[in-house]
Amino acid sequence: MTLLTPARGKVDAVAKGVLRPRSKLAGHLEPGTQVEVMLAQGRTLDVITQAQTVATYAGIRGDLDRLGTAMYLVEVTDRLTVDHTEPAAFELLAAALERLERGDGAHLLTRTFEMDLLGETGFRPQWDVCIACGRTVEGEEVAWTPSGGGVVCSACRPRYPEAEGLAGTTLKVLRAIQRGPYDQAARIRLNPVLAAALERVMHDLVRSVAERDLGSQRFIEAVRRTASAPPESSDVASCP
Amino acid sequence: MLDPLATDSAPPITRLVEAFHRLPGIGPKSAQRLAYHVLRAPAAEAHALADALVAVKEQIVLCAHCQNVAEQNPCRICQDTGRDRTVVCVVEEPLDVVAIERTHGFRGLFHVLHGVISPSDNVGPEDIKIAELLARLRDVDTEVTEVIVATNPNLEGEATAMYISRLLRPLGIRVTRLASGLPAGADLEYADNLTLGRALEFRQEVR
User: Fold this and answer.
1) Which of residues 101-120 of B touch A (CB under 8 A)?
2) I want to staple A96 with a disulfide (CB 3.0 to 4.6 A). Which of A113, A211, B8, B21 is the partner?
3) ipTM summary value
4) Average pLDDT in the A75-97 region?
5) In Å, how far is B79's CA from the nearest CA of chain A?
């Protein structure tokens, strides 16, 4: 199994016998739980000899929408990090799960998490200056490219045929989220259109860096399609 | 490093070793041992193994009702008129049907999902037999009033159970989940918070 640790980043380890019903480790080693473990150093892989749950996030586990978001946070972390690097990813994931557990809006906490993790892993998106010429980009309708990792000015846009338009409001919120802190970003009120635009931009970025589609994103979309789905996030107000 | 599969054996033996090695949980050394066991065994035993392998692929079908593996369609359980047709127990795999049948404590019908929602493995709701369950329950002739979701009590199992529950809500069918708590012979000291919490929440009076 894969562990995300505060000191050593992402670490693969073996948990012996966890499929047995009477396993002493199994309950403590559920994906998405925070746990304290004792590792015995192995030749190729470390072996988990003891485990004690620190946080189970019961509120997340009992709510389908929040569970989908948690699965996405975990998968993004796994896809964007490399073994034994980025120890800061642990703090970012733990903080995001804690916010999700206490009922913060899923949209803003996820966007903040994606932005911070991309920054920590060396893929910080560029929202202020053109990725090609470095000139400050302003205006109501600018262009951006996921593979380039940020905005392009009108002069450089012909060099990026894949660049798409980005609304001024969306860009403003992306900049605010990137500048942080989270508590300030969490006060932004999103309408469904803006929330969807932010999600599209950040998913395109994450997909571009991970070089693959994320299964948890597909699951979140399937959950949204369920007929009687309640409003999924407290940070999205209905359109006026 | 020496590759145990790169043997100097005759090609038929190498092919058999490779075939065993493709099975889950069989490493190169075990594959070699199994292959040489077959080689040393009487010809009748080897033929019986080959026949069993072919038969399982040619004679086993999926029951159109419960999606369980069976010799005929509908399967023996779905055909049994003595079973309670108002309750359907939803399980992940055919082996879970065997486990529940072994208890002799359930007389309803089954539905096998053939997997569980697992986004990290890129398995979504459309990749398992949820649509078939929904179609079965939407059938005008259905007598089902309760669906017991018996997926494993782990992250993927819980996500699948909640997803099914949300899909079935508009149908007005009661959706229940298997109780969870401490397994027989467990040690409280090593129980995780979630399991212990559930065991306390769903405690029972001592009779």
Assistant:
1) 117-120
2) A113
3) 0.82
4) 90
5) 32
| Domain ranges, ordered by start, for chain A | 125-213
Letter for the amino acid at A114?
A: E
A194–chain B nearest CA distance, Å:
26
**Alpha helix segments (H runs only) across chain A:** 58-61, 64-80, 88-101, 106-120, 168-179, 182-185, 192-210, 215-225
- Which of A27, A74, A227 has the CB atom closest to B194's CB atom? A27
State the average pLDDT for chain A: 88
Q: Identify whether the C-beta of residue B97 lies closer than 8 Å to the C-beta of residue B103.
A: no
C-alpha span between A25 and A189 (Å, rounded) = 42
Q: Which residues of A touch B154 (CB under 8 A)?
A: 30-31
Give the range among A113-117, A185-189, A216-220 with minimum mean pLDDT: A185-189
Query: Which chain A positions have a beta carbon within 8 Å of B171's beta carbon?
Result: none
B19 contact partners, CB below 8 Å, separation of at least 6 = none
Domains with residue ranges and CATH for chain B: 11-59 (1.10.8.420), 62-205 (3.40.1360.10)
Chain A contact present for B70, CB below 8 A:
no
* Mean pLDDT score across all residues of chain B: 90
**pLDDT of B20-49, one tens digit each?**
999 999 999 999 999 999 999 999 999 999
C-alpha to C-alpha distance for A129 and A6, rounded to whole angstroms:
33
B164: closest chain A residue by CA: A226
